[in-house]
Specification:
Elements: E1 33-35, H1 40-44, E2 49-54, H2 57-70, E3 75-80, H3 97-113, E4 122-126, H4 142-161, E5 166-171, H5 178-182, H6 196-207, H7 210-213, E6 220-222, H8 227-232
Parallel strand pairs: 1-2, 2-3, 4-5, 5-6
Family: Belongs to the short-chain dehydrogenases/reductases (SDR) family.
GO molecular function: oxidoreductase activity, acting on NAD(P)H, oxygen as acceptor
Keywords: Oxidoreductase
């Protein structure tokens, strides 16, 4: 289908498709350890070990159970913990607390894992499209939106500081969630995406070759974008700052009189 939002490629997806599906042998995760929340798709692709980290033990147990049902060769480890010192905060993703969840957590994870990461390792950060829309669109969600913008810029810096690894931000599409309803957002205004779409898109980013995904390093990618068309864009993006966070309109044409 045609893109619902501005897109660098002409084809838009709301559901998974063969190129990103876990059964695609080119995306095999055999022998890899995956550290991510809700990594069932990586189990489908044969990951050796999945470490699940989050705040709610019951939710982690449920995910672990799903993984075990999905793959008999994948082992799991559960690590319930808070990513900040604000252990008493019940809603880390609300207002200023969003900065701890969305920015500080990335920094902590990067500092812990990147020094010993395999040369073929990937770090994928979940972003949010709303953070890149004009402010009136997300009015009332300043803490959350600005934290996502900061996270995207942090990921961009990490990608340049660790060029041998693949690091990028991913917008996970529009999947109806409890958080959206509690925020009063009308989740019925645009077509919904399946849960499998973002999971499988991130699987592709993890398993695809450098020649296919490399140009996305440090950028923000939407799970709705067709991966075949993204591959065709390598070397043709045109702008080094494409799909990154920056100052709209820069570089400017105007110059001072003495320049």
């Amino acid at each position: 289908m045609e893109p619902l939002f501005p897109s660098p490629v002409p084809t838009w997806h709301n559901d998974t498709y063969p190129a990103i599906h876990p059964i695609n042998p080119n995306l095999s995760q055999k022998g890899k350890t995956v550290i991510i929340t809700g990594a069932v798709s990586f189990a489908h692709a044969g990951a050796k070990h999945i470490a699940i980290m989050g705040r709610t033990f019951s939710a982690l147990e449920e995910t672990s159970s799903q993984i075990k049902k999905t793959s008999s060769i994948t082992t799991t480890s559960i690590f319930p913990f808070s990513v900040t010192d604000e252990a008493a905060t019940n809603d880390l993703a609300h207002r200023v607390g969003a900065w701890d969840t969305n920015v500080k957590s990335i920094y902590i994870a990067a500092r812990a894992f990147l020094p010993t990461a395999s040369p073929s390792a990937s770090l994928l950060s979940v972003s949010a499209a709303g953070a890149f829309f004009p402010a009136p669109v997300g009015a009332g969600l300043a803490g959350y939106m600005t934290s996502k913008i900061a996270a995207a810029k942090l990921v961009e810096y990490l990608a340049h500081e660790h060029p041998s690894l693949f690091i990028c931000s991913v917008h996970p599409g529009v999947v109806e969630m409890k958080m959206m309803r509690e925020a009063g957002l009308d989740v019925f205004k645009v077509p919904k995406d399946t849960v499998e779409l973002p999971a499988h898109f991130m699987l592709w980013l993890s398993g695809a070759g450098e020649g296919e995904k490399g140009w996305l390093r440090g950028r923000v990618a939407w799970c709705n974008w067709d991966v075949g068309e993204l591959v065709e864009m390598r070397g043709k993006a045109g702008r080094e700052d494409l799909c990154t966070v920056g100052l709209v309109g820069s570089p400017f044409e105007a110059r001072g009189k003495d320049r």
